[in-house]
């Protein structure tokens, strides 16, 4: 572990959400802001809307015409090389009218596609949001977390039914 | 596919919010609050009403001016102490802004308040209700209201930075009991409907809260925790009062009960639950020498306002609550030995 202060890995996309007022329809695979997009099961007929209130990231409402196998919110990370780092951490504060769980993972590009390394804890979204903290250690213990990768992103796997979810805050950092 | 705009107040919209602050012997709290207000762009007017503090709480004496606040500053002082209700009403008369919030000198805004004001419209609503934190919850590691109000928020199930409250949810959310002045009002709404605080020493805000919900046509709700209320046990805050002034609560409850009777059955049970919880809480606060007169007044209040049909509705929905009401109606003072 070094004395280097933690680095924020998603500064551009999340800061843009915090500082601008956005709203609109969610279009699969289309970026809402640079580096942030929804990737739903293409066979599920997902539809949705989003808005970004002051000081918060996103309020989203999603519906599916058919049962979905997955629905992910993908956020590009500004880190490829993990050598010299000890952890990649995540803090989140989500809200939902009824309790739901969001499963975060760190996705790394590989020669054959990608590898998903899931954080140990799922993020609980409750009517009154709670601070969620978790971290992945980068010391080689996770097979799905290669030390070098051409690209990485955080994927938040959302519930696959109809969902209302508010992302008050999300920070991805490394130290 | 997204529509983007810079956050913050639109440049052509001048600040348009008055903060009415009743204060009594709390210049330090007033100083702290004015310091917060100076950093909130949306505030255009500050009205301080000193309820006859021992040492006048004139902000100018502490170096506050309109220039330093970035807002018009109005100060008034009551010749004798008349309570926060009278002070708020007096302050409201002086408001020139289109929106108004009542805020006590020991209340604190959180950073969420400024964000709420960026999004709250200037017109087309009657009031906007926001969430709050209680210092007792914060000291226990949480961030929100006390458990009873938290359960109400959860049952209502509305989340989001700003949403319209559906009419069907009003009978639930109206039961919020702590810090009921956590609202930004359209000033015209209060004036058009004649809603005021009850001019009594404690519980002055019951009428303001309930009549606002009952008379509003459009209510906005935010889950932003925009205020922190600091409670010090055994402090001078009115919450801690245990004297006969609590017996005046019926001056606030009677007009609400009359309005409830005219609004239909949806509010009978919520109001019964509210008053019974209030009676229980106040009995715990009240000094023992006032208990008999309090119980007599509770009995009279229930007899005045609960007719057979209303009681039957309560009994069907909550038999245990109806039984407690019956206990109050059947109460008799203890015989005094000759």
Question: How would the blueprint of this fold be written?
Answer:
The complex is a heterodimer of chains A (175) and B (338).
Chain A: E1 7-8, H1 11-19, E2 20-25, E3 31-33, E4 36-40, E5 46-51, E6 58-64, E7 71-77, E8 87-95, E9 100-109, E10 114-118, E11 123-125, E12 132-137, E13 152-157, E14 163-174
Antiparallel strand pairs in A: 1-14, 2-5, 3-4, 4-7, 5-6, 6-14, 7-13, 8-12, 8-14, 9-10, 9-11, 9-13
Chain B: E1 2-6, E2 17-23, H1 27-37, E3 43-50, H2 66-69, E4 72-77, H3 83-93, E5 99-102, E6 107-109, H4 111-119, E7 127-134, H5 135-139, H6 147-156, E8 163-164, H7 170-173, E9 183-186, H8 187-193, H9 206-215, E10 219-229, H10 249-261, H11 268-285, H12 291-305, H13 308-317, H14 319-329
Parallel strand pairs in B: 2-3, 2-5, 3-4, 7-10
Antiparallel strand pairs in B: 5-9, 6-10, 7-9, 8-10
Helix pairs in contact in B: 9-10, 10-12, 13-14
Task: Tell me about this structure.
The complex is a heterodimer of chains A (175) and B (338). Chain A is mainly beta and 175 residues long. Chain A has one domain: Galactose-binding domain-like (Jelly Rolls). Helices cover 5% and strands 50% of the residues of chain A. Chain A has one helix and 14 strands; from the N terminus they run βαβββββββββββββ. Chain A has one helix spanning 11-19, and strands at 7-8, 20-25, 31-33, 36-40, 46-51, 58-64, 71-77, 87-95, 100-109, 114-118, 123-125, 132-137, 152-157, 163-174. The longest helix of chain A is centred in the N-terminal third of the chain and has 9 residues, at 11-19. The radius of gyration of chain A is 16 Å and the shape is globular. In chain A, 37% of the residues are buried. The mean pLDDT of chain A is 92. Chain B is of the alpha/beta class. Chain B folds into two domains: 17-237, Spore Coat Polysaccharide Biosynthesis Protein SpsA, Chain A (Alpha-Beta Complex); 241-329. In chain B, 41% of the residues lie in helices and 17% in strands. Chain B contains 14 helices and ten strands. In chain B, strands 2, 3, 4, 5, 6, 7, 8, 9 and 10 form a nine-stranded mixed β-sheet that branches. In chain B, strand 2 (17-23), helix 1 (27-37) and strand 3 form a beta-alpha-beta unit. Chain B is globular. The model of chain B is unreliable at 4-9 (pLDDT under 50). Classes of the chains: A mainly beta (175), B alpha/beta (338). The interface between A and B is medium-sized, with 25 and 26 residues. Strand 2 (20-25) of chain A pairs antiparallel with strand 1 of chain B, so a sheet runs across the interface.
């Amino acid at each position: 572990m070094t004395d280097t202060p933690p680095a924020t890995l998603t500064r551009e996309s999340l800061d843009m959400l915090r500082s601008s007022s956005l709203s609109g329809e969610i279009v699969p695979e289309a970026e809402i802001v640079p580096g942030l997009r929804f990737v739903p099961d293409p066979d599920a007929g997902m539809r949705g809307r989003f808005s970004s209130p002051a000081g918060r990231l996103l309020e989203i409402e999603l519906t599916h015409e058919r049962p979905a196998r997955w629905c992910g919110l993908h956020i590009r990370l500004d880190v490829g090389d993990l050598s010299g780092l000890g952890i990649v951490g995540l803090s989140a504060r989500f809200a939902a009218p009824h309790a739901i769980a969001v499963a975060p993972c760190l996705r790394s590009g590989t020669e054959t596609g990608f590898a998903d390394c899931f954080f140990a804890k799922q993020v609980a979204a409750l009517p009154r949001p709670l601070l969620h903290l978790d971290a992945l250690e980068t010391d080689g213990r996770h097979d799905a977390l290669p030390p070098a990768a051409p690209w990485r992103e955080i994927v938040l796997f959302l519930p696959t039914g109809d969902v209302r979810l508010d992302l008050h805050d999300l920070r991805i950092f490394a130290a | 596919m997204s529509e983007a705009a810079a956050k913050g107040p639109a440049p052509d919209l001048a600040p348009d919010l008055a903060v009415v602050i009743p204060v009594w012997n709390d210049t330090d709290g007033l100083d702290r609050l004015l310091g917060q207000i100076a950093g909130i762009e949306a505030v255009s007017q500050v009205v301080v009403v000193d309820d006859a503090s021992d040492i006048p709480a004139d902000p100018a004496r502490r170096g506050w001016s309109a220039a330093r606040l970035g807002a018009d500053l109005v100060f008034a002082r009551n010749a004798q102490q008349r309570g926060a209700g009278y002070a708020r009403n007096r302050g409201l008369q002086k408001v020139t802004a289109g929106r108004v919030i009542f805020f006590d000198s020991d209340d604190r805004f959180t950073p969420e308040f400024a964000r709420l004001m960026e999004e709250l419209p200037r017109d087309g609503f009657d009031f906007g209700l926001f969430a709050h934190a209680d210092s007792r919850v914060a000291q226990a590691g949480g961030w929100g209201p006390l458990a009873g109000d938290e359960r109400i928020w959860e049952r209502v199930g509305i989340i989001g930075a700003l949403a319209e409250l559906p009419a069907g949810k009003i009978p639930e959310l109206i039961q919020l009991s702590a810090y009921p002045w956590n609202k930004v009002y359209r000033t015209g709404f209060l004036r058009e409907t004649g809603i005021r605080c009850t001019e009594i020493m404690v519980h002055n805000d019951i009428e303001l809260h309930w009549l606002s919900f009952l008379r509003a046509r459009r209510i906005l709700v935010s889950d932003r925790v925009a205020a922190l209320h600091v409670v010090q046990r055994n402090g001078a805050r009115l919450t801690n009062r245990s004297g006969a002034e609590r017996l005046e609560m019926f001056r606030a409850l009677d007009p609400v009960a009359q309005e409830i009777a005219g609004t239909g059955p949806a509010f009978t049970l919520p109001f019964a639950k509210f008053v019974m919880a209030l009676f229980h809480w106040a009995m715990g606060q009240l000094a023992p020498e006032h208990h008999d007169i309090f119980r007599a007044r509770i009995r009279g209040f229930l007899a005045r306002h609960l007719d057979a049909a209303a009681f039957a509705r309560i009994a069907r929905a909550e038999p245990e609550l109806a039984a407690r009401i019956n206990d109050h109606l059947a109460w008799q003072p203890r015989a005094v030995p000759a």
